[in-house]
User: What shape does this take?
Amino acid sequence: MEKPLLTGRTIYLSGLAERIVKHEITINRKLNTREIREFLSDNNETVETGDMLRILKLMREKILKDLNHKMEISFY
Assistant: This one.
């Protein structure tokens, strides 16, 4: 997963991050497992294979923590 790009008070998120923040992601086989693995390794997390709900919860918590104190969100 690409790391968010910070520019002043605007944060730019990848498409996967956008879907998680907006609660529009569905748990299915289309979810990019490489992005998930990269996210987990970047955040020193380990998750059992198939535990998608926990993965998404961890990702969403991390993204929202990154967004804390930001004035606006822009997606690319």
Notes: The longest strand covers residues 10-13. The chain has one domain: 5-75. Residues 5-75 form one domain. Helices lie at 15-21, 33-42, 52-67.
